[in-house]
Structures are given as structure tokens and as C-alpha cells.
Amino acid sequence: MKLLVTAVAITTALAVCPAFAQKKTSCTSENMAKLVTSSNAMPDSPRKMAMMKEMGAANAAMAKGDMRAACKSYMRAQQMSGQNS
């Protein structure tokens, strides 16, 4: 349930900020959704927990309006998952 709330919050935040989504970074709602979806398939492990902690940090940063910090947290989570896109 927490994962679903995080995914919805991320998608909503990026939909509200279309200029941010247009930048040439991999911090797009599409890529964040892929990361959340791929994390569902991962077995519970310290790596998954660390990745979800970073996604939570990204969500908290977006809630505060700090898109730069949110993107950095997302990028760290993406590296932990081994996802390329």
C-alpha cells in the first residue's frame, strides 16, 4: 500500500510540473513508474529496502517542492535497482 501511495504521489507531482518532466533527465513519471513496478518484482532484501527508502526521500522532497533533491534521490534508487532507463 505504501508503494502505491508513493507511486501515485510521484506521478501526481510530475504531472503538476510539466516543465520538470520536459527536461533531458531520466526523472520522468514514466521512468519512476517503471522503477516502482520493477521493485514489486524484487524479493525483499536490504537492497530493495534501501531503494524504497530513496523513493520515499524523493516523495518527501517533491512534497516540499524540491525537485532537484527528488531527482537525486530517484537517481540513487534507480542505480540500486540496476535499471538502465
Question: Can you walk me through this structure?
Answer:
This protein has helices at residues 2-16, 18-22, 29-41, 46-63, 67-81. Helix 1 (2-16) packs parallel to helix 4 and helix 4 runs antiparallel to helix 5 (67-81). The chain has one domain (2-81). 78% of the residues lie in helices and 0% in strands.
Question: Keywords for this structure?
Answer:
85 residues, mainly alpha, 5 helices, 78% helix, 0% strand, globular, signal
**Coarse structural class:** mainly alpha
Number of domains: 1
Mean pLDDT, to the nearest integer, reads: 75
Question: Which percent bin holds the helix content?
Answer: over 70%
Largest sheet report: none
**Backbone shape:** globular
Query: Could you spell the SSE succession in H and E letters?
Result: HHHHH
Terminal Cα span? 25 Å
Radius of gyration: 12 Å
Low-confidence stretches: 18-25
Per-chain topology:
Elements: H1 2-16, H2 18-22, H3 29-41, H4 46-63, H5 67-81
Helix pairs in contact: 1-3, 1-4, 3-5, 4-5
What's this entry about, in short?
Keywords: Signal. Helix content is 78%, strand content 0%.
